[in-house]
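I'm stuck. Protein, please.
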Amino acid sequence: MNPPPRVVVVDDQALVRTGFRLILGADGIEVVAEAADGAEAVDAVRRTRPDVVLMDIRMPGTDGLEATRRILAAAPDAPDASRAALPRVVMLTTFDLDHYVYAALSAGASGFLLKDVTPEHLTAAVRTVRAGDALLAPAITRRLVERFARTGAETAALHRDLAALTPRELDVLRLLARGLSNAELAERLHLSEATVKTHVSRVLTKLGLRDRAQAVVVAYETGLVSPRAGEP
């Protein structure tokens, strides 16, 4: 059985940090550090090596987007330089259609939560991203992409390695972009979950991505999936 997730909470409002700490602690999730701005967050992550970072986007000084970029670019400083050694970052925002949120997903954040999230959803979200799944509601993701994604030949060229994916891996990426979990992918493709995990891992490796959320962004920006398709 896996130990409970270790979390760093980052927000410039002490009341928000305290509330999140109490909610997470009541569910057996340890908050190993708090930070009031992005610079403190980067330092706290380096000191404590958490599994998950709950990161406010808009803060004075170093904001959450820049802090996320620094944290997820810190692989050379980690004991294990693999992607798995880095924490999962979940962005905290007051509204979902935020270009900062989209930029954070592109930078490698694992998803986002609205600040008025229920306690049950908060604790479930931490456990979800810790397990390696992206925290992306399909409908909100499509709206984000439709509003902020860069599409067209120039963007597609940045991800021309899409051609390196097998037909099965392309199928997996399409469905992953629709927000399906590993279990749902397995059911849809008539595969075992272990096989699905292998395919997802290969997709991320071939595209040079660290997270399922980044894969979703790539799928939309390259036109593999259309935000206007209206699929669930």
User: Anything to note?
Assistant: The two ends are 33 Å apart (CA to CA). Confidence is low (pLDDT under 50) at residues 75-82, 152-157. Strands lie at 6-10, 30-35, 52-56, 88-93, 111-114. DSSP finds eleven helices and five strands in the chain.
